[in-house]
Structures are given as structure tokens and as C-alpha cells.
Amino acid sequence: KPNTVDFIRFVGILIGCICVAVLPTAAENYTGDFLTNGVGGRALGLGGAYVSIADDATAAYWNPAGIAGVSDKYQFCFMHAARRSGLGAFNYIGGTTQILPKLNLGLSWIRAGVDDIPIYPLIPAFDPNISADERRNLVKNRPRESDFTPAGYLNDSENAYVLTLATRWVVSQAWWDNFGRDSVPPEFMVG
Questions:
Q1: Staple partner for 189: which of 9, 62, 65, 98, CB 3.0–4.6 Å?
Q2: Which strand (E) or helix (H) includes residue 153?
Q3: What is the CA 106 to chain-centroid distance, rounded?
Q4: What's the CA gap between 157 and 86, in Å, rounded?
């Protein structure tokens, strides 16, 4: 016969599991939104249609397997874009290197941020408890020039770090010739 305490415990665990599964769906809509900007002049010039041909240092962003196609020993990419008339900045630094004959390593840093946001102390003139008449008629409630001198500055940024390993595997021509001599053997890139 089921015990009431066991049943209550089961229902509590079931409700907890449902909450853990459902709460992430209520997360903020813009989490990681800065990762949708795209990187690299070539890729952005193609309107983002770059995933299948990514074969440079920006491949760590577009298609991690693409760094297996980088033939240079070292390759770097630096990008800076001012956003909203210079209010914000978007930066990308990426690099790839061949660490073994068939293994490439890619490392990237993506940053979107707003720098030098002024911090103002409490300004009495903007106190919601002071009426418009009190602001206009009482000198102590009027804004002073010193109210508009920042007490300091802060920065807000989002960062992503991407570490990628990729390899390329090519089917040998001798084996592929078993299927016909007029074709090129396929290459597989994994990252």
C-alpha cells in the first residue's frame, strides 16, 4: 500500500523536475544575442552565407570544421566595428595553427560592449518625490552643474571564447578508383 509521505515526496520531486526543465525557457530573449553579429569582412560581404566555405581564421565562428582547411601554419584575424555611432564596440580576435600534420587548433575571442558609461550620483532635481513646482521654485531642488559631472565610469561587455580542434580526412585515390576513375575522392572535415 503506497505511503502518503512517499506520494508527497514523489509529487514534490516531479514538480521540481518540471520547474528545472521549464525555467530555462523563460530566460531572457537576448542571451548570447551578440553572437549573431557575424565576424570577418569576407563572410559579412557574403551576407553570412559563409558556413560551407569557411576556410580561414574566422571559421572558428562560422564552421569550426573549416579550420581544418586552413593551409597556413599560422593565420590571424582582427576585427573591430563601432556600433550605434561609436557608443558600442564589437571586437573579434581569432587565430589558427597546425599543431599536428592533420590537426588544426583555433582560438577566438568575441566581445561586444559599451565602454565609459558615466555614473552620476543621486541628483535631487530628479527625485520623483519632488513636485514640478518645488523643482522650479526652490533653488535647492534645481539641477546644479556639478550634478552632471560623472562620479566615475563603468563598462558593460559580453565575451565569448571559442576553442576548436579540427581535422581533415581524405579518402585515398587508390581506394576511390574502385568506384570509377573519373571522380575526385571526398574529403571529410570534422571540428
A1: 65
A2: strand 152-170
A3: 16
A4: 14
Helix (H, G, I), strand (E, B) or coil at 137: helix
Residue 25 above 70 pLDDT?
A: no
91, exposed or middle or buried, with CB in 10 Å at 0-12, 13-18, 19+?
Answer: middle
Amino acid found at 11: V
C-alpha–C-alpha distance, residues 160 and 16, integer Å: 31
> Is the Cβ–Cβ distance between 98 and 104 less than 8 Å?
yes
Strands laid side by side in the 152-170 sheet: 74-83, 88-100, 103-119, 152-170, 187-190
pLDDT of residue 98 exceeding 60 = yes
Residues pairing with 159 in the sheet: 111
Measured at the CA of 60, the angle between CA 59 and CA 63, to 5 degrees, comes to: 60
Query: What amino acid occupies position 129?
Result: N
CA angle (28, 49, 163) in 5-degree steps: 60
Stretch (H or E) spanning 90: strand 88-100
- Rounded to whole angstroms, how far apart are CA atoms 99 and 18? 45
What is this structure's pTM? 0.65
**More confident call, 172 vs 165:** 165
Q: Is the pLDDT of residue 92 over 90?
A: yes
Query: For 184, which DSSP code?
Result: P
